[in-house]
TrEMBL record:
Pfam families: Pyridoxal_deC. One of its GO terms (molecular function) is pyridoxal phosphate binding. It comes from the Eukaryota. The lineage of its organism: Eukaryota, Fungi, Dikarya, Basidiomycota, Ustilaginomycotina. Keywords: Decarboxylase, Lyase, Pyridoxal phosphate. Belongs to the group II decarboxylase family. It comes from Malassezia cuniculi. Its cofactor is pyridoxal 5'-phosphate. The modification N6-(pyridoxal phosphate)lysine is found at residue 306. InterPro entries: PyrdxlP-dep_de-COase, PyrdxlP-dep_Trfase, PyrdxlP-dep_Trfase_major. The keyword rRNA-binding does not apply. GO terms for biological process: carboxylic acid metabolic process. Its EC number is 4.1.1.15. Gene3D superfamilies: 3.90.1150.170, Type I PLP-dependent aspartate aminotransferase-like (Major domain). This is Glutamate decarboxylase.
Length: 471
């Protein structure tokens, strides 16, 4: 009889050496990143915990150290300790969040968070939702959910061909009978991926122009919809889904949800709001107006793992009408026993992690008011930094959102070409990291004043960039 070496109860070594060792490593750990690599071969035989701890040290020092506050490339930053602990608790529990029986309390916590967020966004009493592994996954499920609901249920059995057939019977013809989705030119690429995954194809995504501050032009949206609906054989297809963005990726713009909602209602389109990044403004009494009109959304994506300092992944897809999220449920007698509370049956997946626990404990720790102050401090930092850059003799600001959110685009005066070069030098120094992006035909650094990071750090980075520009 062979016993599995993995079958032992927790061994003293793991608890006495690995865990305290890991905690110590986190405290010692300071550079942004050092060049490290690991041996490529995987071993035939196992090793003791001291070897594991040594390898953990290598992994840590060779990885980006988010705790330095100097990794300013992306839309997330260092997680709070509460959320790290929540994550460790989840790992220790290792509960599958697909069915209620495997994770009863965690499922309840997920539903509490769904209701708490739905209330913040004003989605009403009939709202429902699930956590998803990221904003792109939430957007993809939103599109699938819209497809399943928008065409009298023909999609579930007939697929995209069933929809085309349905539209042809309703008088559409040729390419005009292909379902299409509209999103702004500043929308996230995941809408395109979602269209490909849904079998609609990338051609099904129609880009609506944005203004110079990054907001979708509602008039352009209206004209585009009217043109497509007015021509039964329109080459861009039949529009049924509009994606509005709250907090665009590059400029941080908030689309006008009130106007877009009115247009969607008039033209019977599903309204999705991608608030992956900007949704956190809902916690601030001062800034939540940026999302006025969100209460009309049919679905909404929000990522606590971006601005709320929850560990990755933590994303929610919310829907205004609970029944719409049941379109994907499948009979599987060996798993779903009609509890009605199995979160996986609302998704296209099976096994899931209870990511909501991380938001739940963070919400208990900081409250709506704490999240609100956090967001407000980010707005203030962005404003101060905008003034700093505007007055800088060697820098110029690029296009900005209005009102300004957390993204600042800037470059050495009149010089797009040096931006990627300076960034490479910066990365080589290994002290700071910042990203760049094309905006309206020019190239700019895109700095995100994440509220986790103090103002002085941003100034230090800007000065570092100026210095590298001079070399
Ligand atoms: C970050 C982001 C996404 C993607 O979220 P992931 O969690 O990285 O998958 C989608 N839309 C917008 C607007 C985003 O900012």
């Amino acid at each position: 009889m062979t016993t599995s070496p993995l079958a032992r109860p927790p061994v003293a070594d793991e608890v006495d050496i690995l865990l305290p060792g890991l905690c110590q490593l986190v405290q010692e750990y300071t550079p942004l990143r050092t060049a490290q690599s690991v041996p490529e071969e995987l071993p035939e035989d196992g090793s003791d915990v001291h070897a594991i701890l040594a390898r953990m040290r290598v992994v840590m020092s060779g990885s980006v150290n988010i705790w330095t506050d100097r990794f300013l490339e992306k839309l997330y930053n260092a997680p709070t300790a509460t959320s790290v602990c929540a994550d460790m608790l989840l790992s220790a529990l290792n509960a599958g969040a697909h069915v209620y029986s495997a994770s009863p309390l965690l499922t309840e916590i997920e539903l509490i968070c769904v209701q708490g967020l739905a209330k913040m966004f004003g989605l009403g009493d009939d709202a429902d939702g699930v956590t998803m592994p990221g904003g792109a996954a939430s957007n993809t499920l939103a599109l699938q959910t819209a497809l399943a609901n928008a065409f009298d249920g023909v999609h579930r059995t007939g697929g995209v061909l069933g929809i085309v057939d349905h539209l042809e019977r309703a008088g559409r013809s040729g390419r005009g009978a292909r379902p299409a989705i509209l999103t702004s030119s500043q929308g996230h690429f995941s809408l395109q991926s979602a269209a490909i995954a849904a079998g609609l194809g990338a051609d099904a995504v129609v880009s609506v122009p944005s203004d110079s501050t990054g907001r979708m032009c509602p008039t352009a949206l209206k004209q585009q919809l009217e043109a497509m609906l007015g021509d039964a054989a329109h080459p861009q297809g039949y529009p049924f889904f509009v994606n509005a963005t709250s907090g665009t990726t590059v400029l941080g713009a908030f689309d006008n949800l009130q106007e877009i909602a009115a247009i969607c209602r008039q033209h019977k389109c599903w309204m999705h709001v991608d608030a992956s990044f900007g949704g956190a403004v809902i916690f601030s009494p001062k800034w939540r107006y940026l999302m006025d009109g969100v209460e009309n959304a049919d679905s909404l994506t929000f990522n606590p793992h971006k601005l709320l300092c929850v560990t990755q992944q933590c994303s929610f897809l919310l829907v205004r009408r609970a029944a719409t999220l049941n379109a994907h449920s499948i009979e599987a007698g060996y798993l779903f026993h009609k509890s009605g509370r199995d979160q996986a049956s609302k998704t296209l997946g099976c096994g899931r992690r209870s990511d909501a626990l991380k938001l739940y404990l963070s919400w208990l720790r900081y409250g709506v008011s704490g999240f609100g102050q956090h967001i407000e401090s980010g707005f203030e930092t962005a404003r101060r930094l905008r003034e700093y850059i505007a007055q800088h003799p060697r820098l110029e600001l690029g296009p900005l959102a209005d009102p300004l959110f957390l993204q600042l685009c800037f470059r050495p005066k009149g010089d797009s070409a040096s931006v990627p070069v300076i960034r490479d030098k910066l990365l080589q120094q290994g002290k700071f990291a910042v990203d760049f992006a094309p905006v309206q035909g020019e190239t700019y650094f895109r700095l995100v004043t994440h509220p986790r990071v103090p103002y002085s750090t941003f100034v230090e980075l800007v000065e570092q960039l100026v210095q590298l520009a001079g070399n």
